[in-house]
Amino acid sequence: MKHFDLSRFWLTLKADNVLQWKTALKLTLSMAFGLMIIYTVSFMQMDSQSYAAVVNNQLSNCSGITLFVLFMFMGVGGCYMTNNMRTKQQRIAFLSLPASNSEKFLSRYLWCTVGFLLMYIGAAVIADVLRMLLCLIVYGDECGSVLAYMVGELTETNFEANGEPIWSVVFLLIASLLYGHSNYMLGGVIFRRFNWILTTVVLYLLSFLLLPLLGLLEFYESDVDAFIDKSGPVALCVGLGVVCLLLTAVNYWLSYKVFCRMQVICNKLINI
């Protein structure tokens, strides 16, 4: 099957979700437990007599931590691309599905992106509700909702600097996050075991080896400054964002190629 069929893809997506519901439940509850610990440690530091004066600070801190953990969770989630094929039986069950490689790859991609986002939202809601119940018992007040505070801050954020929109910075941030996710996805399909750990090690070593190249920028520092003065920081952010998106596309393409080469029987550390 080489062509893409929408109805067949939908059946493949549903079958994959049925096979992976236990994994999704474990990830959601584990993340909820971790966020609950963070929220509890943060709010239990407040004095029962003066909690009203510092509760907004705690909500702000917890909302920032929630966003940071979200970015980390979504990035590392790319390594779960082949999590449903750890054993021989799992590989047979998934690779034998009557679907093309593109349909299987896209179903796993949605599971590692949209699925992980939904899991994290569910975990954050569970942790926030449990934290409010705990605060209600200890302080006699729920102390507000971390998620409601975070959403309110994001919707009220003015994406401007000195009267100029900073959409280019947001574009660069999104492109960088996609690039990080694509790196972990590529590592997830290459390494069969300990994929997120090995991917992190490889990325660290690559960044360490590429550090000397940054010294070359000193020779072009004046040219870079002249470009920024002429075109402005917006052009620089857009240019870097486009580069990140191009590298992201390359990583996704390589991930698909490696995914298509996966076999039922594989006792090696890597899937190549």
Q: Which helices and strands, and how do they pair?
A:
Elements: H1 6-19, H2 21-43, H3 51-76, H4 88-95, H5 101-139, H6 146-156, E1 160-161, E2 164-165, H7 167-190, H8 195-214, H9 221-260
Antiparallel strand pairs: 1-2
Helix pairs in contact: 1-5, 2-3, 2-5, 3-5, 3-6, 3-7, 7-8, 7-9
Overview of this protein structure:
The protein is built from nine helices and two strands; from the N terminus they run H-H-H-H-H-H-E-E-H-H-H. The protein has 272 residues and is an all-alpha fold. It folds into two domains: 1-157, no CATH class; 160-272, no CATH class. A two-stranded antiparallel ribbon has the order 1-2. A hairpin with a 2-residue loop joins strand 1 and strand 2. Helix 3 crosses helix 6 (146-156), helix 7 (167-190) crosses helix 8 (195-214) and helix 7 (167-190) packs parallel to helix 9. The radius of gyration is 22 Å and the shape is globular.
Short description:
The chain contains 9 helices and 2 strands, in the order ααααααββααα. The chain has 272 residues and is mainly α.
